[in-house]
Each structure stands twice: as C-alpha cells, then as structure tokens.
Amino acid sequence: MITEPVLTIVIPCYNEEEVLPKTIRQLRELREQLIAERLISNKSTLLFIDDGSRDATWTMIYKASLRYSEVKGVKLARNAGHQNALLAGLFSAKTRSDCIVSIDADLQDDVSVIREFVKKFHEGYEIVYGVRNKRDADTFFKRHTAQGFYKLMKAMGAQLVYNHADYRLMSRRAVEELERFEEANLFLRGIVPLLGFRSTTVSYDRKERLAGETKYPLKKMIAFALDGITSFSITPIRLISLVGFVSFFISIFFGAYFLFLKFTGHTQTGWTSLITSIWLLGGLQLIAFGLIGEYIGKIYKETKRRPRYIIDLDLFNLPMPGSFFGEEVKMTDQKKRV
Fold first, then answer.
1. Taking the CB of residue 271, how many other CB atoms lie within 10 A of it?
2. 3-class secondary-structure state, position 1
3. CB count, 10 Å around CB of 94?
4. Which stretch of 113-122, 123-132, 305-314 has the lowest confidence by average pLDDT?
5. pLDDT tens, 185-223?
6. DSSP secondary-structure letter at 161?
C-alpha cells in the first residue's frame, strides 16, 4: 500500500456560488491537515466540476485555481446532471490519483470523515462508503421517502448501501473498472457495489446545508428514484404480468358467478359496477404501457451511444507546453502514419 497516496477530492457543482468560498476554504484546510499527518501526498488536489452552472460558479473555480495550485477545475459544456458530472470528475482524476473521494459542494456530508476514508484506504480497502447515522437534517417527507426507496431497491434485488448517497472513496483501480460500464443510464449507487472490490463503511452525521438551495427538488428526486429502479430491476415488468394473471383469473371467477346468476334468474343491471371495472382495467393498462415505455426509452438511449458529458475546459489535465504545435503532435502524426 502507498505510504502517502495522491488524493483527489471531486466536487460536482451546479449554481453553487453562495456556498463555494466556504467549501474551498474547508477542503483546503482539510487537505493541509492530512498532508501534515502524512496520510496523503502534497500532490493531492481538489477538483471542482462545473455542471453547466448559470451563475458565477465557474468564475470562482477558475480564480481559485489561479490563486491556489491545489485547486483544479473542469467545466462541462452544458448541464449533464449530477451523476454525469460526478463521473466526469472521477474519470478525469483517475490518471493522477491513487484514491478519489466524491463529495457534494454543499458540504452537508462531514468533511472530517475523509480522514477516516483515507485511513481505511491505508488498511487496504478500495471502496469506502460514507453512511449517514440519521437523516435529521432532511424534511419529514424526504427522510421517509428516501428510506422507502432504499427498502424498495433492496426488495427488488439491487445491492445498495443503506443510507449512502455519493459520499465515498474509490481507489484508482476501482474507478478504472467503473469506466468499463458503458451504459448511458449509469446509476452509481447501484453500480459501485457491483465492482466487488474490498469495501467498508464509515458512519457520520449529516449537517445542514451551509448556504444556497438544494439542487434536488421533488421532481428530480422522483426521476432519480425511477431511474434507479428501472436501471437495476425488471421486477416492475414482472409485477405487471402478475397483475394481468390475477385480473384474468378474477374475471373468470366473476364470469362464472354472473352466468350462475343468469341461469338462476337473479341477474340485475348495474351501471356503477360496469364503469368501475372499465376505469380500473383502463388505469392498469395505462400504467403498464407507461412502465413498459420507460424501459423501451432506456433501450433507445443506450442504442444511440451519446456521450454522457462533454468537457468544455479541463484545468486538471492541461496539456504540456508545446503539445499543440510541438513535438507531441509530431509524434502522434508519425504513429498515425505507421
């Protein structure tokens, strides 16, 4: 195991100008402490990913990179979503890092836990999950829906780490293997446990957001949950089949019952029961079509093979001087001719 590994802390950002100065200061202080404790190398960096922000987020990242050598930035050409921005940071950082920690810019996740992450990495763990002790900082609705989501995913067979979001440490080898997963709909919380490398958890208490507003309103939360469910399980499709079989056998039972009433002379006309049954079956059919359409839509996205994100500017992997018009280009041209 490397005595002083190179650590890169990846921070996806989207319209975070209010909280960014505090985030940069706290993470820089933590980096200095870890270096002083000889837990990480002095080559360790902070990598901020601007996910197409519309405010001054990128300007602040760029100015910080000019002022502090350990602060780097990657600017995406457009808003690609939190998960894709996180992937952009992981894949950019892996070439110059021994281990990578991902954390949200709002710092609701306790940054001091990164020290425990690195210690676990020194012990030989390649993936370290940050797990919340409790969710008191969340609203009542968000807390219970999130817990219900984890339980539902577990019931469907997905290997999610309970109460873990995207606060984790991954070794370079783990990130390299993660890059081999080429699907467009990459649900990280479900994919990372599938890597199979030696892993452990570190518990912590989640804090209040330092500043600004959450970037995960109800609409995005529902879309995220639906994406996770349909990315990792075909159970909903099987449930539709089950509902269809149950409805079929119930209809046979009631058909026999009504035939019995007809032959015994006890039939009665009933508009309410007829309309209710039509509405019920019609609603079930629409839900079934919508769910099947969700899976077909995912197949459609996968077949197009569009890139998950496009990098506009990368301050982390800057080319060496002369690489555009110097020796490196000449060498590349020669290789192409061969």
1. 7
2. coil
3. 21
4. 305-314
5. 777 887 888 888 999 999 988 777 655 555 555 566 666
6. P
Residue 7 structure tokens: 């650590």
**Model's pTM, two decimal places?**
0.71
What are the angstrom distances between the C-alpha of 48 and each of 212, 254, 313? 17, 63, 12
Q: Is the separation of the CB atoms in 88 and 311 below 8 Å?
A: yes
Q: Nearest-CA neighbor of 188 among 89, 97, 53?
A: 89
Give the pLDDT band (50/70/90) at residue 327: very low
Residues in CB range of 221: below 8 A, 6 or more apart = 142, 145
Q: Supply the DSSP symbol for 326.
A: S
Q: Which two tokens stand for residue 265?
A: 């002379």
Distance CA 20, CA 64 (A): 10
pLDDT at 126: 95
Integer Cα distance of 12 and 145 in angstroms: 24
Residue 199 to residue 43: CA distance in whole angstroms: 25
**Calpha distance 176→106 (Å, rounded):** 27
Residue 153 has pLDDT above 80, yes or no: no
Judge residue 137's burial from the number of C-beta atoms within 10 Å of its C-beta, 0-12 exposed, 13-18 middle, 19 or more buried. Answer: middle
Residue-wise pLDDT for 62-92, tens only, equals 999 999 999 999 999 999 888 899 999 999 9
- The order of strands in the sheet holding 127-132 is 199-204, 127-132, 164-171, 99-102, 7-13, 45-50, 71-76, 311-314
Are 295 and 227 in contact, with CB atoms under 8 Å apart?
no
Q: Could you write out the DSSP letters of every residue in 81-104? A: -HHHHHHHHHHHHGGG-SEEEE--
Radius of gyration of the chain (CA): 26
Compute the distance between CA of residue 163 and CA of residue 18 in angstroms, rounded to an integer: 27
Nearest 5 degrees, angle CA 16-CA 19-CA 21? Answer: 110
